[in-house]
Amino acid sequence: MCSSLLKSLSPQLPDPILLHPVTLCLPPLQLKVGVKRAVELKAMDSGGTSDPYVIVYLTSDRRKRYETKVYRKTLNPIFNESFTFQIPQAEVSESTLVMQIYDFNRFSKHDIIGEVRLPLASVDLQHVIEQWTLREHLGEICFSLRYVPSTGKLTVLILEARQLKRMDSNGLSDPFVKVHLILNRRKWKKKRTSVKKNTLSPYFNEVFVFEVPFSQIQNVDVVISVWDHDKVTKNEPIGKLFLGCRATGNQLRHWSDMLSNPRRPLAQWHILQPPEVVDKALGLKSHLKLPLPRY
Fold first, then answer.
1. Nearest alpha carbon to residue 153 among 244, 216, 205, 206
2. Ranges for the C2 domain (predicted)?
3. pTM of this structure
4. Helix, strand or coil for residue 122?
5. Residues 134-153, buried b or exposed e (16+ Cβ, 10 A)?
6. Based on the number of CB atoms within 10 Å of its own CB, is 218 exposed (0-12), middle (13-18) or buried (19 or more)?
């Protein structure tokens, strides 16, 4: 049957015809990343300095990570270290280069100072790129998480924020917080706090309880976003972050600590990130209203 079909489709070709499947195998690309230096880092230690080091990885393979050396008691470290990644060409357009600066602590968890994400699709990889990446300070937010597996109750307590970005002409903002739950990369549930007028350091102390069955907790992301309220025009986002098994840095650590300590509320400060960076990392699908999973 196959032979007769080929003849009818291609009568001009001689008989017999032997067809071989062709698989195009492109060699992996070699991506060389150089970490040069940082300036005016945030002081994380009581002495007014930090002990910074950098972690570098690609989102296409999070297991392959490089670390620079730790530089003691400085806010202006000079690293001058380079790392080489092998990345399949088919994964380049979907991969993002992540560089995270941490403050080393000998007896406690290392604190993240900042993070830079560079989508590889946005740069010309045929040429050497050398640039400073300036991170705008958007503010910080403190909240606690608590999860009870037996009841499927996820509690998010929004406590306060500080050093928020000025959004209004008077040098202040009218902030409020949205809490979104994402299930399997689709928007699922949402809550929001009240608006706090004319402040860059709002105190909320508002609690939200979500029903998340234990069978779904590994598939859930919690998105925390701070907004500036405006009566006349649209509300503007100030900054975002998300927690879940797909998160990185302090966000992943906070989420993991919550799962490891059921029924115990755990509070932590987090640095807000640019909304577009968080949205890209989440890779949300189109909105779909989902029923509460049964268990």
1. 216
2. 11-133, 137-270
3. 0.59
4. helix
5. eeeebbbbbbbbbbeeeebe
6. exposed
Residue 94 near residue 83 (C-beta atoms within 8 A): no
- Backbone torsions φ then ψ of 143, nearest 5 degrees: -150, 160
- Could you tell me which residues are beta bridge partners of residue 285? none
Question: Beta strand 220-228 with 236-243: parallel, antiparallel or unpaired?
Answer: antiparallel
Residue written as tokens 């570098």? 56
Give the residue carrying structure tokens 């990889």: 125
Contacts of 279 (CB under 8 A, 6+ apart): 240
Determine contact, residues 138/165, Cβ cutoff 8 Å. yes
DSSP letter string over 160-215?
EEESPPP-STTS---EEEEEEEEETTEEEEEEE-----S-SS-EEEEEEEEE--TT
Average pLDDT for runs of 10 along the chain of length 295: 39 47 64 88 81 91 90 92 88 85 82 79 71 72 97 97 86 94 88 96 97 94 95 88 87 93 94 85 57 45
Provide the 3-class DSSP secondary structure of residue 24. coil
Task: Tell me the β-bridge partners of 67.
Answer: 55
Closest CA to 139 of 241, 247, 252, 244: 241
CA–CA distance from 26 to each of 85, 88, 89, 91, 144 (Å)? 16, 8, 7, 12, 47
Phi, psi of 4 (to 5 degrees): -65, -35
CB 164 within 8 A of CB 226: yes
How far are the Cα atoms of 77, 102, 163, 165, 201 from residue 171, in angstroms, in the given order? 32, 31, 12, 9, 13
Torsional class of 179: left (φ above 0), alpha (ψ -120 to 50), beta (otherwise): beta
What's the one-letter identity of residue 207? V
